[in-house]
Amino acid sequence: MDSSIWVAILGTLGTLITVGGTIIVALISKNTNKKVSKIEDVKDYCQKMMDKHILENDKTYLTDFLSDIESGEPKKEIQIRRAYEIKEEYNKKGGDSYVDDKWEELAKKGVLKERRQEA
What we know:
4 helices; elongated
């Protein structure tokens, strides 16, 4: 399945979890006459978990992409461009260095362009 589909699914799932958590906290608070002070904590936790899952999904996509490139599997320009986009986001979210190391190794071998060329 394409990475963007997974991101959309995880985004929707994260939203549902956030809404569900908010409703549960509100119901518990209403039924026990406690203040709802933890809604932000629930939202923050859900966002953190969603970011973690997106990061893991991106890592899997990038390692698969780099393995394919290393094995000589041809990639279309659109697949390469998408890999660069995912790698940029992955790095912004603090992705692991071994993906960068493999990316640089393949770039030095000339199998992968060092920088994306804009069309």
